[in-house]
Design brief:
- The protein has about 600 residues and is of the alpha/beta class.
- The chain contains 16 helices and 25 strands.
- The protein has one domain: FAD/NAD(P)-binding domain (3-Layer(bba) Sandwich), CATH 3.50.50.60.
- Strands 7, 16, 17, 18, 19, 20, 23 and 24 form an eight-stranded antiparallel sheet that branches. Strands 1, 2, 10, 11, 12, 13 and 25 form a seven-stranded mixed sheet that branches. A two-stranded antiparallel ribbon has the order 3-4.
Amino acid sequence: MRTICVLFFCFVSCSCQLQSTLEQFRRIFNLNNSPPVDPSVNLKKEYDFIVIGAGSGGSVVANRLSEHPDWSVLLLEAGKDEIFLTDVPLLAALQTVTSYNWGYKSEKMRTACLGLVGSKCNIPRGKGLGGTSIINFLLYTRGNRLDFDQWENMGNPGWGYEEVLPYFIKSENCTLCDDIDRDYHGFDGYLNVEHSSYNSPILKAFLESAESMRYKNVDINGGDGLGFSKAQATMKGGRRCSASKAFLKPILHRSNLHVSIESRVTKILIDPATKQAYGVEFLKNKKKYRILAKKEVILSAGSINSPHLLMLSGVGPKEDLERAGIPTIQDLKVGYNLQDHMAMSTLVFLVNESITISDLEMQRPRFIYDYIINGKGPYTIPGGALGYGFVQTKYNNTSDYPDIELVLGAGGLNGDVYGSLRNLLGIPNSLFNRVYLPHLGTPSFSIATVLLRPKSKGRVLIKDSNALHWPIFRPNYFQEEEDVDTMVEGIKMAIAMTKTKYFQKYNARLNPIPFPGCESLPFATDEYWRCSIRHVSTTLGHQVGTCKMGPKTDERAVVDAELKVHGIGGLRVVDGSVMPNIVAGHTNAVIMMIGEKAADLIKSKWRNV
């Protein structure tokens, strides 16, 4: 929180140039062109389409459906509108301790998060216009072409890479000039993609080290599945370009689109006899609303809330619904197939020169001034991530298909003086004081190891029939030993990078203090890393798969290839929960692609009706 105060202080301290500063401030944060959403919209009793959730899927669908002037669209969002502080890329971790995060936690497990607060995993999910795209780390990657070809081969026609690539391109407004495969990018879409304006010597060492290990510097969103690059991010002019800012704010003038914030959907209305969805119930300002849908209800509440809402509405595993006292309308494996990316984000590499960032470094007035006035500098680093690399371990023999991502962080946890990053990860203060505090003030960076293709799968379960009670989150991280083995190899690759001459000119070295719970094992051995992975690995917030897309012959499928819920009319799911397998990359861009394709599927059905 202190960084925020300093940010405000710097702004106020520039009062001698107040008028010009205000103009620059408005330009950077686009205040004139991004009107706030009216919380008191006059709701109608009936709409053609009702979209539940204004995240990366719902925002896109609401935009594209409201392009048809004769169709009325209601977009319901449980959270509130964004504020300018959510737009500062480097402050991404801070958003997870605000009301913009649902604040979910997992159940205790024997296989993961053993050393975190309460021995539970933090599960950050966005609550507000833009959904998780207002609290994520802004990294723009699309996954690998083999991910989508697998989707299609699993019985989902139209979801192969060649079919989905045009939808990625349609969304994107790529402002990158160098080192991109232009044939794979869009340049006139709603979603702005750019690099941070900040260049660090650590990033240069990262990319040079990769080349010395025979990995190319590539456009990872282009034709190559393996390689390293500076981070591409969903930013515009150095500020966050959330799904809301990209797809909703430019179209709020459309009279056929109503956006209702702070509207908590509690049930999808489904006729038990005809099995037809016909509306929704939701709470707003302590009042219950019941609004009907003439054509379809589109569920885009995310991989935790979408399955929860389906189960609250009578669609889900019969045995779970009976336990919760909810009549079963359609018996489907809702909530199964949960997949996520776990990361070892807790490794710190110390260096001898002040070429990294920390909470203390970021209080320098010149950094704050440069961001507020010019939209430049280290505050534009997306979540602190300078670059990433997609690599293969010895366990992976599929050509051009990574199983590990390495993410370069501009600073280390020992610089997390005010606690935003450790609060995000769930790092206890006792662990921080023991492992990181002895190196307070020492320049450092991190390389996070990300498990891209986990074998372990979990579940989201309903707790009871009360719509305001959280669901049960049982992720089963590292239940499969192969996932741990792959992570160990990824960690060793990250450490090997820091031993090249490009990092050694800064005397890069791994923090030698062992993690609590693993001290008895020889430091930096495979056994030590296996223990550390189970104690201090954390989620990237890429939960997907809980409303699996697949044909009727797939007993765990919830929606078909057109994203229609099996056995229920007038109801589709459009978010990350439909992914049959998690992609080998970050999920935000993929969910927007799903929204684009879903909108075309819906338009195709209703255009001539």
